[in-house]
């Protein structure tokens, strides 16, 4: 049975590691003015989230070749009061992963930051070039007595089809049935397999049709769920999608 949830936000204390889960580097040249503008943008976007009590902000600082555009977004169940802490941490550490290049995106458990020298206007043709992919191969919480690989021999194509339905329905919920552009889901195929949890989220400034288009495109990049992979998080500039055998969000799906 597939159970979908448009999450009723349950706020939690923010716990964020100093290091990002994954990041993207670009090779374009960066001068001192550009780096200074990144700091200004960090302060501006964090202040915007704090003052408006939301979990999404976008903006730019600087002029001409030194201009920096950015978007920041926290996961839909992270409170607007806690969100700025993750954003500040992300910007503070945005310089270290790429020694000879420039960080243009960082993914944390509770927030995502994208920066660019170009305006981050939605562009479906450029979507798959900007993906961050975090693959989890250790999240499985199945009892040791359950041999997952053997279980998969039972109609694995049917299971895989149900998972695709879960991903699509979660994306539709986020795009068309949520003012927060955020939804979660849960899939329970049969008792020999772990529950599968899903999440879909778009930037709050995206129209519903663009949100659906974005999620549909990045979900097509998802790898096979089975074998040694037990979770995957795919994040683009304008939307992100995640599934896992662990419940990674707050709140319970509909029963």
TrEMBL record:
Q: Tell me the keywords, alphabetical order.
A: Repeat, Signal
Its signal peptide is 1-17
Could you confirm whether the keyword Signal appears in this record? yes
The Gnk2-homologous domain extends over 16-120, 141-248
> Which Pfam families does UniProt cross-reference here?
Stress-antifung
Family matches, as CDD domains:
Gnk2-like (cd23509)
Which Gene3D superfamilies did the record assign? Answer: Gnk2 domain, C-X8-C-X2-C motif
Q: Which InterPro entries match?
A: GNK2, GNK2_sf
**Protein name according to UniProt:** Gnk2-homologous domain-containing protein
Species source reads Triticum turgidum subsp. durum (Durum wheat)
